[in-house]
Amino acid sequence: MSHEKLELVRALIPQPDTDWSRLIRDDDSFALVRETLGPLVTNDFASVMVWPAVNRTYAGLEGLRNNWLDWLEPWATYRITIDELIEVGERVVVLPRNYGRRKDMETEVELIAAAILTFTEAKIARWEDYADRAAALETAGLAEDAPTSS
Questions:
Q1: What whole-number distance in Å separates Cα of residue 145 and Cα of residue 142?
Q2: DSSP E strands: which ranges in the chain?
Q3: Any idea what the CATH number is for the domain that residue 104 is in?
Q4: How far is it, in rounded angstroms, from Cα 59 to Cα 56?
Q5: Residue 18 forms part of a structural domain
Q6: CA 20 to 30 Å from 23, out of 15, 34, 92, 101?
Q7: pTM, two decimal places
Q8: Is the pLDDT of residue 145 over 80?
Q9: Does a structural domain hold residue 19?
């Protein structure tokens, strides 16, 4: 099986010490994100937030930014490490650990989340962020104890 999608996703993920709140909020930093992702996404690219009681879809790369801006609103700092990447057909399941410090807190909290990136013709067509890792694994057709690809 080709692992081109895994390698592409792996290459797109910032280093673990990257503060996503700065990366997304800062116009110049996000311009670089837009420049990097632009050729890698479909014309109808969608970003989806799948959280308990919240399911929002955003269009295009500005939609991806707005999705993240909505999520990052209460966070002073936010960083992500990747536990695992799993290729499932035209999807790559990303299993991250998110660490954030809210504006009114001194310590970080951890969120064990997931994302599913769906590809169409070698480009990313859909990026879904899940607060519930089990729900993402179920959506991707995987059980939590499934064998992995990364």
A1: 8
A2: 41-51, 54-59, 75-88, 91-102, 109-112, 114-120, 123-130
A3: 3.10.450.50
A4: 10
A5: yes
A6: 92
A7: 0.87
A8: no
A9: yes
Q: What is the pLDDT of residue 3?
A: 83
Give the total number of structural domains in the chain. 1
Range of the domain at 91: 4-139
Query: Residue range 112-125: average pLDDT?
Result: 94
Query: What pLDDT does 150 receive?
Result: 53
Q: Which helix (H) or strand (E) holds 4?
A: helix 4-12
Residue 20 lies inside a defined structural domain of this protein: yes
Gap between the Cα atoms of 89 and 110, Å rounded: 29
Residue 146 lies in a domain: no
**Taking Cα atoms as reference points, which of 117, 75, 132 lies closest to residue 99?**
75
β-bridge pairing 114-120 and 91-102: antiparallel
